[in-house]
Amino acid sequence: SCLFGLSAQNRYVTNNGTVYFKSDAPLEVIEAQSEELQGVIDPGSNSFAFSIPIPTFQGFNSPLQQDHFNENYMESKVYPKATFQGKIIEQEDLTKDGVYVVRAKGILDIHGVQQERIIRSEVVTKNGMMKIRAKFTVLLAEHDIRVPRIVHQKIAEEIQVEIEGDLKAREN
After folding, report:
1. Which one, of 116, 41, 36, lies nearest residue 76 by Cα?
2. Residue 165 binned pLDDT confidence (cut-offs 50, 70, 90)
């Protein structure tokens, strides 16, 4: 279909991407992941948007730790999701088969605090599918996530995050 003389561009969508995080502190390592990352990449405008529901993270060392994560640190009833949206800096045609390393520049919103970030990402396009991968760190202080002094040795100030997702082409 044509709209204002532009051919319809496919958008690439996922509803089951993975977000994994690790807090590597002196006294404890905490790891959790969710497989409910939702996202869209629009190659026509080079834009993207991703969202993860915070309460879907699993795999903590204990149920109590998961409760603390949701209630005390992430306050997931008040801030139920984290989002990252913006533009891809490189002007690559990501719809063509290939391996691309691109910089995703946008607003990372965690715990209700927005930070502009540039996140290096790998995109592998093959047969109408895109596989994305990214690794980056999140500083708790930058997102106003407060850790009581008593647990400072158990929770890292810098959290390692890995994202992976398979996106399928979908016509608008």
Report:
1. 36
2. very high
Please say if the pLDDT value at position 3 is more than 70: no
Report in angstroms the alpha-carbon separations of 78 from 17, 91, 110, 143: 23, 37, 11, 14
Count of all residues that appear for the chain in the document: 172
CB-neighbour burial class of residue 80 (10 A; exposed 0-12, middle 13-18, buried 19+):
middle
Beta-carbon contacts of 80 under 8 Å, excluding residues fewer than 6 positions away, are: 53, 54, 55
Q: Please state, in angstroms and rounded to a whole number, the distance separating the CA atoms of residues 80 and 47.
A: 23
Q: Which of 57, 151, 69, 148 is nearest to 111 (CA)?
A: 69
Query: Cα(first)–Cα(last) distance of the chain, in Å?
Result: 10
